[in-house]
């Protein structure tokens, strides 16, 4: 979040958000097919990328967007679109961003960081292609230093995103859906992800070996000193080391330092102590760069017989797999919404997450470190060719200091897994990981090939089995020395808040009785794992619903039913079963279903209690209606003849009450209730708060089966960025100011406006109900470390200059299309050597933006030395009649598209002349 960033002092590195202020066009821009020699010649030149990739493209009608942005979530549901991608069109889109750089940045190193773009992307800076990337899940750090312009000149970043292509069989979104940054550092600087600091324990003693990569874009070799300080969670510097670095121009060097650390606070699941590794680079003149990473002191091991150990303690991996989209926002999930999702998971008893089947954003990994959640860090593409190996090494370099990461996963369910080819590929990927991080085991999620003579499993340190619970023992017997865990299981179904399965309406009751043919219920899958002590734990598919891959129902269902929570991260009953299975140190008692069954009086209603207590007693309106010892995995189920009122469960251990829960019949909805997850947020254009929408009856009791329509509006320092309700069958738009409740709940996500502070008022209205209003405090985020938005300027570029001539040249003389050499190339200043041939023609062709061609723009020639005539598209615009150097400003007549400007200059005899200043087309009156 912006708040955690600091505005840099002069000389210190700056990491500036580039998220605000992009222009966006949904769709592709077909380029005319090029046939001519001149055009063919030009489009192959650096800086001359055609169309929207180019610096001077007319984007005046494009839409303004701030990143992160997912255009797929804005689109309609359509049965003709891909089911796997959630029946929403993806397609192609373009983004452009303008920025200026102060002249004091000249000589610094400038890196463009694009953290995630779905799916294939190409990036241009000032018309030069600087990056191509074929994964939507890895970031790229692009050194753009050589291509930049400073001072008044405007730089253009253009990004073409192809989201027709897929990398997964789930909803992947479309566009620049993660953060973007501009990083300014000294020419000699610490490389991005260049600090490797992963603590090692030997004979009970901790050391922190630190390797720092220093890169240089300087013009000459330089010497510097690297200082590394380890800062404890309480802010004390607890270890320090220094090393010299010599780095040659345009090279990298690395320094290795060893820090001894006495009795560090351990990183545990309950108290995830994070240490900061602060590296400072100095030369004779002082500090030139600094960078920071964090790490944690913990040990872990996978044991083939006894499973997983964290800090010496046996710890089963109580894991979930999750994808990355959320209600209302698609894959463009604000960091604060990620925090909400991960807190919800943590309080369910989750101690491990498998980000399936790809790397999440860095901010999400930071949350895992900070909240104390272990991570199975998964690579997307099983491929050992150079582009793909780069995706893998990027992931390991980014995440190898993180205490949360305990497994690298190289693939999920690859058909080649049990073949020699699979083995050869896995072996190479394992070796590449080992080179960068020798401390963590490598695994893969397999659903076959486990027992072939040669397959990926032979190359892996730890085996992951997906679903096939009957193979657990077989595997352990076959590979008694290889640790194993359930990399994926469960795939159970539930519709949140629903208690009657209705196949025709695509509704699945929430008692934990339904799973895919290949899966198990929440309770069943965990039983298989706990029944096998050698199993290190498991990852339930999935912690949260996700769009796409709608299972078990297809259209009109558009998202999965697998989630332990729904798309809004509202708990389904699966959540309470998992709590009852996973949480040991406090009582869990959850009674289901709700108690609104009008018309069912006297008929049996299935009641289930999710609990970790050994005994439960059920009371209806005060009278005991059932009592049971709880079976540890099945839990307790009753048939209770329905009567309206209050159904209560009392859980006990050894006759002593340990907890209770109740459901109560409600009346008709009377009032809307808004419950924000937090009462304050930052006015930084990023921080977002989920607000739960519900309704209560006249007595204030929640109406659990309400499905009514609610309308929202806001006032003040923020806005709504999305809505949802967790119904996998809903086709209501995510970007809206209204939503229906689904079984009693909906969600509105509000965001503080950038630069705003004060109050954000959210109101909710439903027909015939008392409305709700909630007030959130929007806090001043202070000076934001953001790259200011710049306006495009029209500076016609790529001029041609005629040879000097003794006579006035014809301003409209045509150059042959294939003549690349009789007129010289170059941009102003364009001087003329004093001599006998006093005339010269200068010419440029350029596309004129629509917002500059309305007849009110001017061509501004800042300095012409000599007399001059200015011609546009064959028509004379005006003259400069004196030889004395000076400017010339002339109106540009209206006209769309490409324009050709020709300037004839007549030199003053014996004096240096020419087109000596900038030539710009400026809007309005000069
Ligand atoms: C697995 C796969 C997941 C998801 C799941 C649905 O085979 O790894 O990505 O498709 O099935 O049950």
Write up this protein.
This protein is 10% helix and 38% strand. It has 6 domains: 159 residues, Sandwich (Jelly Rolls), CATH 2.60.120.260; 108 residues, Sandwich (Immunoglobulin-like); 267 residues, TIM Barrel (Alpha-Beta Barrel), CATH 3.20.20.80; 68 residues, Immunoglobulin-like, CATH 2.60.40; 109 residues, Immunoglobulins (Immunoglobulin-like, Sandwich), CATH 2.60.40; 124 residues, Jelly Rolls, CATH 2.60.120. It contains 8 helices and 56 strands. With 926 residues, it is mostly beta strands. The structure holds beta-D-galactopyranose (GAL). Beta-D-galactopyranose (GAL) binds next to loops. Keywords: Glycosidase, Hydrolase. Belongs to the glycosyl hydrolase 2 family. GO terms for molecular function: hydrolase activity. It comes from Telluria antibiotica.
């Amino acid at each position: 979040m912006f708040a955690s960033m600091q505005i840099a002092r002069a000389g210190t590195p700056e990491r500036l958000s580039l998220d605000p202020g992009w222009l966006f066009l949904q769709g592709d821009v077909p380029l005319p097919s090029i046939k001519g020699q001149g055009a063919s010649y030009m489009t192959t030149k650096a800086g001359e990328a055609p169309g929207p990739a180019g610096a001077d493209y007319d984007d005046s009608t494009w839409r303004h967007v701030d990143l992160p942005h997912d255009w797929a979530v804005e689109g309609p549901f359509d049965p003709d679109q891909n089911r796997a991608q959630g029946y929403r069109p993806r397609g192609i889109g373009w983004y452009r961003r303008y920025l200026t750089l102060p002249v004091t940045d000249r000589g610094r190193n400038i890196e463009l960081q694009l953290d995630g773009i779905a799916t294939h992307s190409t990036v241009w800076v000032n018309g030069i292609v600087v990056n191509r990337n074929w994964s939507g899940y890895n970031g790229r750090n692009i050194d753009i230093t050589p291509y930049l312009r400073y001072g008044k000149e405007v730089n253009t970043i253009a990004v073409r995103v192809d989201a027709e292509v897929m990398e997964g069989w789930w909803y992947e979104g479309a566009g620049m859906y993660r953060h973007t940054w501009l990083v300014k550092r000294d020419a000699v600087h610490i490389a991005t992800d260049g600090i490797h600091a992963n603590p090692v324990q030997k004979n009970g003693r901790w050391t922190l070996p630190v390797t720092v990569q220093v890169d240089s874009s300087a013009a000459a070799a330089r010497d510097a000193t690297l200082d590394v300080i380890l800062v404890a969670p309480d802010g004390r510097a607890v270890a320090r080391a220094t090393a010299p670095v010599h780095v040659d121009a345009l090279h990298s060097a690395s320094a290795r330092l060893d820090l001894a650390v006495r009795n560090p606070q351990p990183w545990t699941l309950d108290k995830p102590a994070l240490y900061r590794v602060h590296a400072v680079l100095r030369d004779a003149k002082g500090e030139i760069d600094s960078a920071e990473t964090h790490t944690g002191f913990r040990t872990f091991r996978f044991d083939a017989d006894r499973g997983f150990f964290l800090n010496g303690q046996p710890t089963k991996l109580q894991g979930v797999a999750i994808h990355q989209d959320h209600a209302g926002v698609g894959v463009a999930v604000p960091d604060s919404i990620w925090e909400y999702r991960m807190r919800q998971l943590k309080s369910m008893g989750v101690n491990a997450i498998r980000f399936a089947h790809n790397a999440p954003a860095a901010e999400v990994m930071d949350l895992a470190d900070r909240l104390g959640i272990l991570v199975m860090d998964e690579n997307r593409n099983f491929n050992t060719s150079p582009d793909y190996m780069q995706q893998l090494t990027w992931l390991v370099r980014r995440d190898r200091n993180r205490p949360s990461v305990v497994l690298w996963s190289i693939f999920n369910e690859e058909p080649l897994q049990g073949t020699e080819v699979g083995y050869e590929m896995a072996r190479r990927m394992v070796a590449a990981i080992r080179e960068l991080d020798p401390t963590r085991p490598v695994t893969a999620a397999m659903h076959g090939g486990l027992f072939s003579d040669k397959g990926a499993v032979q190359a892996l340190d730890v085996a992951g089995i997906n679903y096939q619970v009957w193979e657990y023992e077989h595997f352990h017997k076959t590979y008694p020395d290889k640790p194993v865990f359930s990399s994926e299981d469960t795939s159970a179904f539930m519709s949140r808040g629903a208690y009657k399965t209705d196949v025709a309406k695509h509704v699945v009751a929430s008692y934990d009785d339904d799973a895919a043919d290949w899966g198990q219920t929440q309770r069943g899958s965990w039983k298989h794992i706990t029944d096998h002590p050698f199993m290190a734990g498991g990852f339930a598919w999935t912690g949260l619903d996700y769009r796409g891959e709608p299972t078990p129902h297809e259209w009109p269902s558009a998202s999965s039913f697998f989630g332990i929570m729904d798309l809004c991260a509202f708990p389904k009953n699966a959540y309470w079963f998992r709590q009852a299975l996973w949480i040991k140190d406090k009582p869990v008692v959850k009674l289901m279903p709700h108690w609104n069954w009008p018309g069912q009086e006297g008929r049996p209603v299935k009641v289930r209690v999710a609990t970790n207590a050994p005994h439960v007693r059920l009371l209806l309106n005060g009278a005991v209606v059932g009592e049971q010892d709880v079976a540890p995995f099945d839990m307790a189920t009753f048939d209770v003849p329905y009567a309206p009122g209050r159904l209560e469960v009392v859980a006990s251990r050894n006759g002593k009450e340990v907890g209770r829960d109740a459901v109560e019949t409600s009346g008709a909805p009377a009032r809307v209730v808004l419950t924000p997850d937090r009462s304050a947020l930052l006015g930084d254009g990023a921080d977002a708060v989920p607000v739960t929408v519900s309704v209560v009856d006249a007595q204030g009791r929640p109406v659990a089966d309400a499905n009514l329509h609610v309308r929202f509006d806001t006032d003040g320092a923020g806005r709504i960025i999305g809505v949802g309700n967790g119904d996998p069958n809903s086709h209501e738009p995510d970007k809206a100011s209204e939503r229906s409740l689904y079984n009693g709940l909906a969600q509105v996500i509000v965001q503080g406006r950038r630069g705003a502070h004060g109050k954000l008022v959210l109101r909710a209205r439903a027909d015939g109900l008392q409305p709700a209003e909630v007030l959130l405090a929007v806090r001043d985020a202070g000076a934001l470390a953001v790259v200011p938005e710049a306006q495009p300027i029209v500076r016609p570029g790529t001029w041609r200059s005629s040879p000097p001539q003794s006579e006035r040249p014809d301003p409209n003389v045509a150059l042959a299309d294939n003549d690349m050499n009789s007129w010289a190339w170059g941009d102003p200043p364009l001087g003329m050597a004093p001599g006998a041939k006093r005339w010269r023609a200068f010419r440029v062709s350029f596309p004129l933006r629509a917002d500059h061609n309305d007849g009110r723009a001017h061509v501004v020639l800042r300095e012409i030395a000599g007399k001059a005539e200015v011609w546009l598209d064959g028509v004379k615009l005006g003259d400069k009649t004196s030889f004395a150097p000076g400017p010339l400003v002339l109106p540009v007549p209206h006209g769309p598209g490409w324009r050709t400007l020709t300037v004839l200059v007549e030199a003053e005899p014996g004096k240096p002349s020419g087109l000596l200043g900038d030539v710009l087309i400026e809007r309005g009156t000069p």
